[in-house]
Design goal:
By secondary structure, the protein is mainly beta. It is globular, with a radius of gyration of 28 Å. The protein starts with 17 loop residues before the first helix and ends with a strand. The protein has a 17-stranded mixed sheet that branches. Strands 19, 21, 22, 24, 25 and 26 form a six-stranded mixed sheet that branches. Strands 30-29-32-33 form a four-stranded antiparallel sheet, with no helix packed on it. Among the domains are: 112 residues, no CATH class; 94 residues, Immunoglobulin-like (Sandwich), CATH 2.60.40.10; 79 residues, Immunoglobulin-like. Helices cover 7% and strands 48% of the residues.
Amino acid sequence: MPKDKKVTEYIEWTTIPYRTIRFWVVVVLLCLIGTGIFLINKYGLPVGGGTEDDPPETLEKRGAKFMSTDGDVRVRKMNSIEWVPADKNVTLYPGDLIKTSSNSSCQVVFFDGTVYEVKPSSLVSILESYENPSTMSRSVNVELATGSLDLSTSQKNVPDSKTTVETPNTVTDVAEQSRLSTTFDEKLHDTGIKVSQGRAQVTDKGSRQSVVASANEEVQVKDGGLKKISLPPAPTLLAPRTNETFATSEPKRQSIRLEWSAANPRYSYRVSISTHAKFYQKIFEQVVENRNHIVISGLDWGLYYWRVVAIDENNIEGYPSTANMFALRRGKVNPSESIRLELKEIIVMGNILEVIGKTDPDNFLTINNRVVILSKDGSFKHFTEPFAGARVATLNIVIKDYSGAVRQIVKKIPLD
């Protein structure tokens, strides 16, 4: 019998070094972490993340938009090292930075209705902007690294929602329907918080001490200590009324009486006039004592803004008044009905309205006493200030042409 053939089986083995496996594991983990950071930055997801069931429109509401930009305002996105000019079409998310140069400012509105106005020479970082999908609580937080900003909050959708502004040495929790200003001096490392409406709790990051400030109060944080002081109330401007026009052939000989309400006979008042709504450059400023008016002259034709700040007997300055605008115009004034205005759309965004329309490009337009920036063809998109606690928003639209003629339109818009 033939002998059985021996069958030999060979199995090939490939040896992979341990260091190679470890390398690829690290690469995969870094890719996953990078993807997660990208999604959080893009969609503003809360800690704990969202789900695939989150509708796109809900994620979009977690961003912030520029309401207005004035001058050189720049943005740096979290995933970029380049500063680019601010654009109203850009959506801002946590990790993004906003920088203003001198004589520049911007307004940013968040999905919860909070409005931050970044003042000149400031640097702001967006820290939080999200909504918890299970509790519906909203969290908006920015950090002021240097400079100053104003903010106003709307009514909370749920009690747990919060609005916060930080500086390198403070955290301020702002109550609903409140207004305040925050400043931070990078050289002195000092923070100042002035409350004009509502309430805010200021906490020192170092000592963890807190103090609550209400309307017309200021909290100063310096050298590791908190100090609260009372502020004189902002005056009410009486004359000239906002948008009032003086038609004259000799403007520099035209006398104009500026008058305001006096809260206390011991107060002084700083009166300022500017050709810019933000008062970047003042053409007139004077401190008035023991009276509530001043008569000025020597102005040329043009548009002017004026405001008044009260100063108490301890030389403490309060919040400036709301600015009024008046005009000196040449010759005869046109009939008001000749001024063109097209209101194309009014969009309700919570308690804020976006007004879209068109007028002649050389007209001057204000909505609720705020200047509207016109494009070269006269078109505009304008966000209003929040209508805190109101069910119906009132739009007071005033258009002024080159001759000084004024057309006024009042509209009531339901917010429900």
